[in-house]
Design goal:
The structure is a homodimer. By secondary structure, chain A is of the alpha/beta class. Chain A has a single domain, classed as 3-Layer(aba) Sandwich (Carbamate kinase), CATH 3.40.1160.10. Chain A is 36% helix and 22% strand. In chain A, the strands form four sheets. Chain A has an eight-stranded mixed β-sheet with strand order 5-8-2-1-11-13-14-12, sandwiched between helices. A two-stranded antiparallel sheet of chain A has the order 3-4. In chain A, helix 3 packs across helix 4 and helix 6 packs parallel to helix 8. The two termini of chain A are 18 Å apart. In chain A, 51% of the residues are buried.
Chain lengths: 262, 262
């Protein structure tokens, strides 16, 4: 099966002009089919503040009321997404910016109201991904760049970028050998949270359980690892968690970051 | 040659929630290959005001400094474009939102500084349009929806929506029989500016000269007609100028609006 890289970037790259420039150059240099997924929460909050749109959260998750939904349409779907696509084109990487509505790639379901009403938030699943449109783009050497937005009916919905990356990976794992790469602010999963240089090279199901028992892992990394194993159990070959600056060193067998396998 | 409709809408549709809903439903109903181009200046100005970004104009043309360029990326490329695509998808019209950078469809040249520095404004020409990518989308029954943004290098550029519509039409006229439709607030070009019902059915080169001599036409319509004949002289079969509400009645031989031919 052909190799495909699905790479997700967040604030540590997006909020830093130089880091973003550097990343887009590196990403353009990857000589394989690839997909980029981006976040942008901090930028949305900043612009929201300027517009008098209050950013509300419950348990760290944003409430997307109507003004917030318009805000994220503008910021994720416009400001950030179009800037990334243009930056990639300047490196002759033939990118195309997508939300879930474009080409109907990611139809979603508006999250039902539970204890909390999160508003215009979309839940997605691998079987609903429009994989044929994505193959069609990838075959033409067009590089999809996903904003963290999906849709249902005529509603644009806010969806977590990490989730979009993993759902895309699972959906496309039938036809590609996928490395799903999550770029974050550290070089990888750390053995010792106080020592940035001490990256765990490889984590599989067995060593994961061991690390959990040893209570070596810091809280913040746990959801990332659960997410990673979830994707692997659904068919994704490999997940890598590493630094955005190490992108080109995280594509092969030897990696700077932490490789996660079955 | 196969028929293709290229339809441009502006403020009279975009600034009115009901008009936009109605238009998107009609547009979705067109059973031919089609492309939509939208503007959005008023909405950009309104949001710009809220962000403290002053909207400056010289001779009716917006100056796009850097903050304004970010503003239009957000509003044209995000808020309006994504909303239109989603609205079309809700009618099962398989739309995809594009700026000039997406799939490199509309590479532009940043307008050189003349008497006035218009800032980040892009000039485009038919021969640079990436027609193969557009055919590729149209063949798949995907409907391109253009925001009025182009690019050069890593700069997003502001480009007039009317111009994008006509440049696309000229570029695609080699392979399609095109009707380029400009939707505006009147039902068509009026014989008598004081009588909204009095639409001129057909204007060709000869009758155009006559109308100019008779000084029947109001100033505001002249650039639209010059633009129309310019497109026709470069190969576009027909241009129609009419009301957005009459879209479905302006697709055939008989029209509510004004048909412009060689």
């Amino acid at each position: 099966m052909q190799r495909l890289y699905i790479i997700k970037i967040g604030g540590n790259v997006l909020d830093d002009e130089n880091a973003l420039k550097h990343f887009l150059k590196d990403f353009s240099g990857i000589q394989f089919p690839k997909i980029l997924v981006h976040g942008g929460g901090k930028i949305a909050t900043k612009i929201g503040d300027q517009l008098g749109i209050e950013s509300k959260y419950v348990n760290g998750r944003r409430i997307t009321d109507e003004p917030t939904r318009d805000l994220v349409s503008m910021v994720y779907g416009g400001l950030i997404n179009r800037k990334i696509v243009t930056g990639l084109q300047s490196h002759h990487c033939n990118a195309i910016g997508l939300t879930g509505a474009d080409g109907n790639v990611l139809p979603a379901t508006k999250r039902p109201v539970g204890k909390v009403d999160f508003g215009y938030v979309g839940d997605i699943e691998p079987k609903r991904v429009n994989t044929s449109f994505l193959y069609f783009l990838l075959k033409q050497n067009v590089v999809p760049v996903f904003a963290p937005l999906t849709y249902e009916g005529d509603d644009i919905l806010n969806t977590n970028a990490d989730t979009i990356a993993s759902v895309l990976a699972v959906a496309l794992s039938k036809h590609f050998q996928i490395r799903l790469i999550y770029c974050f602010e550290k070089k990888g999963v750390l053995k010792d949270v106080n020592n940035d240089g001490n990256v765990i090279q490889l984590i599989n199901s067995t060593s994961y359980r061991q690390l959990l028992d040893e209570k070596v892992l810091v809280d913040g990394i746990l959801p990332k690892l659960e997410n990673a194993f979830d994707a692997i159990h659904q068919g994704v070959s490999e997940v890598l968690i590493g630094g955005a600056g190490d992108l080109l060193k995280n594509l092969g067998e030897e990696t700077e970051g932490t490789l996660i396998k079955q």
